[in-house]
Design a protein that fits this description.
9 helices; 26% strand; disordered C terminus; elongated
């Protein structure tokens, strides 16, 4: 039996189960998948022993997640925020402003998840979402664009919007390689970081998007061809990028079609 499993049981004071783990081929990387029924099958009859093993195995699983190696993958990133939210905060009470931000965040989360995305981070009045992580799809760029398009349409009807005050969102989307997997922060503030030029570009695109609009970069524009209609906004000089970046505004979403037709 691998030494790490022996050490695991030894630290729990349960070395009498070494042979059972060895005979059943339970390696260290399987400990986090054990269930109470599995432990009974291993001959561990005492409830206290089973609970002790499961609790320690759950801690191993958490540590493995935090130590997971970073990996390179193709991701579509969507940045969304409320336009002129700082000005809005001076026109309504803090309670109404807080309720409005929470409504926007909740709406963004439900919309992103509806299209198979993952909300990676909230920051003030903004939201960062990944499409292609943790589950990837061949049409992640299309999903992100549809989610962004729906989100900007929903924002004006958010609970907390006050009569006479115009509220709008803007969205920036781009696709490209990132390094993802490293966990940043602790507890509820933890997140899987996505590093590279693509997240920076998506953020810059969001900053130049007109109110109530979705803008995309070259890669997302190419990947979503046929699934949405675009209008060129021309090349933009964006901070941190040496060459001007072509930018497109989404003008309409095409009716869903079969993938082979596309």
């Amino acid at each position: 039996m691998p030494q790490r499993v022996q050490n695991f049981l030894s630290e729990l004071g349960l070395t009498e189960y070494n042979e059972a783990f060895r005979e059943q081929g339970v390696d260290y990387d399987l400990l986090g998948d054990l269930t109470a029924d599995d432990l009974r099958e291993l001959g561990i009859e005492k409830l206290g022993h089973r609970k002790r093993i499961l609790a320690a195995a759950a801690q191993i699983e958490t540590e493995v997640d935090r130590e997971a190696p970073v990996r390179r993958r193709l991701l579509t990133l969507m940045f969304a925020d409320l336009v002129d939210s700082t000005a809005l905060s001076t026109q309504i009470t803090l309670e109404d402003y807080h309720a409005h931000i929470r409504s926007f965040q909740n709406t963004a989360k439900s919309t992103v998840e509806q299209y198979g995305g993952y909300v990676a981070k909230y920051f003030g009045d903004g939201v960062l979402a990944y499409f292609g992580y943790p589950q990837s799809h061949e049409d992640d760029a299309d999903r992100a664009i549809r989610a962004g398009w729906e989100l900007v349409k929903l924002v004006s009807d958010l609970p907390g919007s006050l009569e006479g005050i115009s509220v709008a969102a803007r969205v920036g989307i781009e696709t490209g390689p990132v390094v993802i997997g490293e966990v940043v922060g602790e507890g509820t503030a933890s997140e899987h970081s996505a590093l590279g030029s693509t997240p920076n570009l998506a953020a810059r695109l969001q900053s130049v998007a007109p109110p109530s609009c979705v803008v995309v970069g070259p890669a997302s524009r190419r990947l979503a061809d046929g699934n949405a209609h675009f209008k060129s906004l021309g090349p933009h000089t964006l901070k941190g990028f040496e060459d001007p970046v072509p930018v497109w505004k989404v003008t309409a979403i095409a009716r869903s079609r079969d993938r082979l037709d596309r």
